[in-house]
Amino acid sequence: MKRAQSILKEVFGFANFWPLQEKIIAHILEKKDALVVMPTGGGKSLCYQIPGMIFDGLTIVVSPLISLMKDQVDQIKEYGVPALFLNSSLSMEEYRANVTKLRAKDAKLLYLAPEALLAPRTLALLADLRVDCIAIDEAHCISQWGHDFRPEYRQLAEVRAAFPAAACVALTATATPRVREDIRQSLNFDDRSEFIGSFNRPNLFLEVVPKNDPLEQVLDLLERYPNESGIIYCATRRQTEELHAHLQKNGYSVRPYHAGLSEAERTENQERFRRDDVRIIVATIAFGMGINKPNVRFVIHYDMPGSIDNYYQEIGRAGRDGLPAHCLLLFSYGDLQKIQYFIGQKAEQEQRVAQILLSQLLGFAETDLCRRVPLLNYFGETSVPERCGRCDNCRPGNEEKALVDLTLPAQMFLSCIKRTDEIFGAGHIVDVLRGSNSQKILKFGHEKLSTYGIGTAYSAKQWRHLARQLIQKGLLLHHYEHGSLKLTPKAWEVLRGKEPFLGRMETDSKKLRAAPGAAQRPRADEADSSDPDLFEALRKKRKALAGEANLPPYAIFHDRTLREMALYCPRDREGLLSLYGVGKSKLEKYADAFLEIILEYSQTHQMPEILKTDPGDGARVRS
Question: Considering the entire predicted model, what is its pTM?
């Protein structure tokens, strides 16, 4: 681990490991398997990259997309780490050259798509090499309960068996307890191999607003982030094209991305976005997994995603550098009906799963609690503070919601669940309360219950909204596989009249959120103290250097590193080396170019150098 700590600082330019990283790396270095679940931007890659540099043999990294693979290799090579990939984007000469490097042991990390790894010629090549570690990125693709299930991922267990001496590490940012169990079983991991970080991304400001005038709401948010990168997600190709045209007409640097474009167009638009030639991408959900761009400052959901998994994965593309980012969801019950229509086209089993996932997302959108409570609870994280201060429900001045006493309808709903033996879902309970004559009610004799027909004063939509509030506030447990609802001890307190139930009973979908339009910008952090003009000068230099090297700008330095340069104004290499993300390789390549700009700007504007010290020690000015 001393060597790992040295690599962390000297190669990657980070002073300390983040939570869990040190434990995971030590575990992998002992050649033990590991399931790693950490949020986007939480440092998963280092968990296999550092062991890969220490092991004598090769580390294979399974990556789902060619574009993501290239991005990963470009970035790690900038740190001076020998890495390469084998995929169809290479010419025959390039492919052979990389194979020669592998056989000569000139690479420590080999990136492959699952299909390429499973190919007989690849397995034959690897059979002659020492493989010490197999890292499976985006491991949720293994599970049928994951949002990006890929059958090829399911076959990786066979490859693992071919290299029994290698440690296997599966990594993902989005995995519910059910998905984690699926991954462990597929790869034959035991429970002791699981490392679960918090799913909380505190730098993301979460906001849900009613979709009243969506174009104006989008323009309002874009005005708050001039010259910043962002992604806007739409449900359909048509909507993507229409919104792209509107934004282009309004003078924004924007490109579309959807399956209706040619592969060449999609690749070009994605590449221009990665390289900061285009600021905004308007896309369907087909866009994103291949993007490792750290400086995305906002993600807008113009239409509702289909599940919390999709939502979390998509907002995960924002703020990967740890700086503040804004996530806005425009909510509409009309969008909900569209999703219901598409769910109706699926097979019966798939419909049931999709309805459960949609119900959970709806609970997140409608909650009057802190947004992070239902979001993190979904991923099995229960120790969640009641207020995060980083969502629209927790913003200053929003401490007291306009809640009403819903004890009576809550008692009706809870009583009906109990009288139907706690084995049915919300839809059936609503039907009983509203006096439906469905075959299911008649089959079970539920038309004879005392709760039958007592809830006609409320619509089915209002009852479902109440049900989601009862789940969110811990009065009901929702069995996600079967959809059944069960009472908790808190429910009995309300049923017996010992505790009131306060909530909201909607009468108009437009009243979902009291706040109009897209709301406040996320809270500032230390990086906002940096000099904005110097930051822009450094950003221009980074863009020029990236163009010369045929790299995306963030492969040279993250925005966070540039902001620290513009805050601390280092005068020499020693000062530059103390900044976030500056290792020895990057120092040698780029120190002169960036120090020249900092020195000239500092002299012109009489700015002192501030010496960066360890956290808590304060900063010192050097004149």
Answer: 0.75
